[in-house]
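On clarity, I found the account of how folds are encoded harder to follow than it need be. What matters is that the chain and its backbone geometry are given together, residue for residue. For the editor and my fellow referees, an illustration may be useful. For illustration, here is how one protein appears when written out as sequence plus structure tokens:

___
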Amino acid sequence: MKSIMESVKTVERPIKVLQFGEGNFLRAFVDWIVDNLNEKGGFNGNVMMVQPLARGMGDMINDQKGLYTTCLRGIQNGKPVEEFRQITSVAGCINPYSDYESFIAQAENPDLRFIISNTTEAGIAYHEGDKLDDKPQTSFPGKVCAFLYRRYKAFDGDASKGLIMIPCELIDKNGDNLKRIVLQYAAEWNLEKGFTDWLENACDFCNSLVDRIVPGYPRAEADAICEKLGYKDNLIDTAEIFLLWVIECHGKTHEDELPTDKAGLNVVWTDDMTFYRTRKVRILNGTHTMMSLASYLCGINTVEDSVKSEVIGKFMRDGLFNEIIPSMDGDVEELKKYAADVLERFANPYIEHLLLSISLNSVSKFKTRDLPSVLGYIKKEGKLPQHLALSLAALIAFYQGTEFEGDALVGNRNGEKYLIKDSREYLEVFKELYSAQYKCNGCKAKALTETILAKEDWWGMDLTSVEGLKDAVENYLVTIFNDGMEAAIRSLD
């Protein structure tokens, strides 16, 4: 069978987008959008990816000269839809850990206009000790500061060479937070006032919200899809058809340069994205996080099968409609409609969205996505949301492991190994707690609950101070340890 490079032509265009992140999501979201803009919006620009970690997919992407195929699938108007697109908008991928000079040289590209990123929720963070002359800096914001400073120097502070930052990390005010840390590095590195003025006046750090479910490489179907395509593609990227990108700009929008309207794309340019973000993070992402670990421990592997499951499906719907939505402000009927649409998307039979993929960084995800619903529900209803409390217990149970495999903690589901992936500091705490000797499961549940919930640096507060939460989580953990996850969920009825 031919390779994709023999079947699809690369297209040389100016590099207008520098993208930190080479994973499945950005390739089926931002790079798919840019490809549409090139075809329908007259954008005439390509993306240069930057690998945010030392290990990544850069070599695979370069082996295929940036070419790959997206496969969008779903149900529209009651009928199955499958749409393939050959993506030609990616020029390649740079690994700054092995080739820093190629990375920093992009700062001198006069055509560059946008920096886009998705470095996970933990990516927009300050790392003490990063220096300007590091090659590269450890943190993503440190790399951005060094990159922008090189650009400032290369173009003598020309205001027209400022860049537009659109981070896609799922944290509140992602652009504002990125800017804050970049300015912090500029101050620590004693960079001149002219540079910080250029940052403030010539660059725009937009906040953004992304919404598209992207399972990624369809391992079980890859050979069949390649037969249908007529070429071998090792980077096929599957996603749902639905797409929403909300971009909050400071002052003017940048739709003239990123003409998403001309391409007919569902991109919202706004000066206040609060409503869109709260709705999506609490309902879609919050429901994912609420149910995924509990569902996995029930022996289920995908989101679709979770929705279809009698036990998990009910747990998911009850938690969403009876706890998450009541915890929120806004038009209840509108929120219910959005929630119903979300569940329909979860049940998409063409999307194999693995629960283990959702499990990545679940501690920070629970804090961002579900903790606001816990606290909001208590404030509004005056009682504890039991489904959300159980989901926190499920998180603690899912993180049960005593050995590492690389940077992941090894869990066990009925004799089947799985990898628990999160920040090392979190995993070390769970490893230590689960390695201890306990006289009974009640003792173990008590120690785990009291220690984990008291981690103010994890949750932004001491969760043992939330009335009833510690006792509920502890009791659910006892049931999980003694009788299994399904029994704990059934106890809610």
Summary: The chain has two domains: 4-270, 274-490.
